[in-house]
C-alpha cells in the first residue's frame, strides 16, 4: 500500500516537491534526468565530496547515482558513502555498455533499489514513480531499523501504533530531567520502560535503583528508602544507605507508588521538593541528585480524591506521564511477542517444538490477557515445556476455548477490523498526517475523519492535516 502511494505523483502533496540528490559520477554530463522528474526537486552533485556537502545542507527523500566506468578504489569510496547513510535509498542510472561488467553488477545488486539504463527513452516517465517507490521502501526500512534499534537498546518488542506512541514518548521524556509517572495495568512493561528512559537519559552511566513500594512491610519502608544510622532502632547494627541515596547520579524507580504509606509520602515529597534526605536516626541532611520515575496500576487521581494519596505528591510525580497500554490494545503485538519469547526460550536448547499453530495464534489474539506480557511469557514458557506437538496448540497454552472454531468472526466484523487496521497503518506511516493518510487509503479527508470517529481512533483532533 505504501509503495503504491509512494509511487503517486508527488506534486499532489501540499508539502511541496520532495528532494532527490543526483550524484553524477560519469563525468559525461549528458542524459540530464531533470525534465523527467515531475514533482521532485533535483539537487546535483558532481562528486562524492560535493554529495556529502549537499547531504549536510538538505534533507533528501531519495538518491540517484549516475554510474560510469569505475576503478576499484572509487568503488570502495562509493560503498563507504552508502554505508554512512543507511536510511537513504538509491536508484542507479547506468550506460548500457557498463551493465554486463561484474564489478558494477555487484554494486547495483547490493546498494540500489532499482536501476535504469541510459538513454532512458520512453522508460523515462517511469522514473518519478520509481523514485516514489524507493522513498516508500526507504520509509519502511527506516521504521524497521528504528524498531530493531529499540529492541536492541531496551529489549522491547512491539510494532503496534499504541506501543510506537510509547516508544516516541520514551525518547522525548529521556531528554528531560523531570519526574515521570508511568500508568498502566500490571505486567504491561512499566519497569522495562523506566529502564529504557534511564538508559537513554544523560544519567545512563549512573545507577538505576528499583524499589517496589507495595512489597515492603510498613515499618521497613522508611529505612529502606532513606537508610538508617547505626542504633536507629533495635537491630540496626550498622549504618545502612537507603535506596534514594543509592540512586544518586542516576534514576530511582518507585514501583507501585500508590501503595506507599501516607506517612512516608510526606518524606518522599520533601525529597522531591528539596532534593535532600535524612537517614532514620540521623541528624545530617544529605543532598541527593536522583531522577524519580514512579509507576502505578491504580488510579492515583481516585486515590487522591479518597484521601489515600497526597495531592501535592501526585502533582510532583506527574510532571511527565506515559500511559502503557494493555496487551490487548496492541494490535499485532501478541504474535510478535509470542514469537520473540518462543525464540528466547528455545535458542539455547534443542527443542522439538517449532513454533505456534495457526489456531494458537488465533486463540492468543482472541484472549484478553489480564496479566498482560507477564502472563504471555508464562503461558509460552509453559507451553514449550509441556507440548507434545511440533506446533504449540491452544490447549498447550491453556486457551482451548478461544481457538478459531469457537469464535469465527462475522463478515461485518472482519470488514471493520480490516478498515481499522488500514486506517491505523496509514496514519502511522503518514506520521498522523490525515490528508496524506486519506490519499493512501483512496478516500476523502472528511470520510477518514468520519471513520476515525466511528472507530474511536484517538487523537484525530490533534493530527496534522497538511
Ligand atoms: N515490549 C516488551 N518487549 C519484551 N518484553 C517485555 C516488553 N514489555 C514487557 N516485557 C517483559 O514483560 C515482563 C513484565 O514487564 P514489567 O515487569 O516491566 O511490567 P510492569 O508493568 O512493571 O509490571 P508490574 O506493574 O506488575 O510491576 C518483564 O519480564 C518484561 O521484561
TrEMBL record:
Keywords: ATP-binding, DNA-binding, Nucleotide-binding, Transcription, Transcription regulation. CDD domains: AAA. Residues 156-385 form the Sigma-54 factor interaction domain. It holds the Pfam family AAA_lid_14. PANTHER family: TRANSCRIPTIONAL REGULATOR-RELATED (PTHR32071:SF120), TRANSCRIPTIONAL REGULATORY PROTEIN (PTHR32071). This is Sigma-54 dependent transcriptional regulator. It comes from Zobellella aerophila.
Amino acid at each position: 500500500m505504501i509503495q503504491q502511494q509512494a509511487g503517486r505523483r508527488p506534486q499532489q502533496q501540499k508539502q511541496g516537491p520532495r528532494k532527490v540528490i543526483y550524484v553524477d559520477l560519469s563525468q559525461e554530463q549528458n542524459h540530464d534526468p531533470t525534465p523527467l522528474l515531475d514533482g521532485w526537486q533535483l539537487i546535483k552533485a558532481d562528486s562524492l565530496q560535493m554529495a556529502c556537502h549537499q547531504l549536510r545542507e538538505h534533507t533528501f527523500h531519495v538518491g540517484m547515482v549516475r554510474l560510469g566506468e569505475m576503478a576499484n578504489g572509487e568503488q570502495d569510496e562509493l560503498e563507504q558513502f552508502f554505508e554512512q547513510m543507511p536510511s537513504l535509498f538509491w536508484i542507479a542510472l547506468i550506460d548500457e555498455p557498463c551493465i554486463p561488467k561484474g564489478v558494477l553488477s555487484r554494486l547495483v545488486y547490493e546498494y540500489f533499489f532499482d536501476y535504469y539504463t541510459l538513454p532512458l527513452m520512453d522508460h523515462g516517465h517511469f522514473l518519478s514513480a520509481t523514485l516514489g517507490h524507493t522513498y516508500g521502501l526507504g520509509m519502511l526500512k527506516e521504521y524497521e531499523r528504528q524498531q530493531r534499534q529499540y529492541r536492541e537498546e531496551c529489549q522491547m518488542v512491539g510494532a503496534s501504533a499504541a506501543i510506537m506512541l510509547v516508544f516516541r514518548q520514551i525518547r522525548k521524556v529521556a531528554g528531560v530531567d523531570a519526574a515521570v509517572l508511568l500508568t498502566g495495568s500490571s505486567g504491561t512493561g512499566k519497569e522495562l520502560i523506566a529502564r529504557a528512559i534511564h538508559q537513554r537519559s544523560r544519567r545512563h552511566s549512573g545507577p538505576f535503583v528499583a524499589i517496589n513500594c507495595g512489597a515492603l512491610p510498613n515499618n521497613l519502608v522508611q529505612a529502606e528508602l532513606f537508610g538508617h544510622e547505626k542504633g536507629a532502632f533495635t537491630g540496626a547494627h550498622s549504618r545502612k544507605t537507603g535506596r534514594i541515596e543509592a540512586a544518586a547520579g542516576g534514576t530511582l524507580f518507585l514501583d507501585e507508588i500508590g501503595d506507599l504509606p501516607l506517612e512516608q509520602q510526606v518524606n518522599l515529597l520533601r525529597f522531591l521538593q528539596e532534593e535532600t534526605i535524612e537517614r532514620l536516626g540521623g541528624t545530617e541532611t544529605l543532598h541527593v541528585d536522583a531522577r524519580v520515575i514512579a509507576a502505578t496500576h491504580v488510579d492515583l487521581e481516585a486515590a487522591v480524591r479518597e484521601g489515600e494519596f497526597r495531592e501535592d505528591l501526585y502533582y510532583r510525580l506527574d510532571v511527565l506521564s506515559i500511559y502503557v497500554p494493555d496487551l490487548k490494545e496492541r494490535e499485532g503485538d501478541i504474535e510478535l511477542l509470542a514469537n520473540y519469547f518462543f525464540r528466547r526460550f528455545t535458542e539455547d536448547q534443542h527443542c522439538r517444538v517449532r513454533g505456534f499453530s495457526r489456531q494458537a495464534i488465533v486463540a492468543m489474539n482472541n484472549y484478553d490477557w489480564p496479566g498482560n506480557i507477564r502472563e504471555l511469557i508464562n503461558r509460552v514458557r509453559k507451553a514449550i515445556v509441556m507440548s507434545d506437538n511440533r506446533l504449540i496448540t491452544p490447549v498447550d497454552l491453556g486457551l482451548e476455548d478461544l481457538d478459531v472454531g469457537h469464535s469465527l468472526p462475522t463478515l461485518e466484523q472482519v470488514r471493520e477490523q480490516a478498515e481499522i487496521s488500514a486506517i491505523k497503518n496509514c496514519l502511522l506511516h503518514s506520521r498522523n498526517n490525515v490528508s496524506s493518510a486519506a490519499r493512501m487509503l483512496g478516500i476523502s479527508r472528511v470520510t477518514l475523519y468520519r471513520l476515525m470517529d466511528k472507530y474511536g481512533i484517538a487523537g484525530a483532533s490533534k493530527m496534522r492535516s497538511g
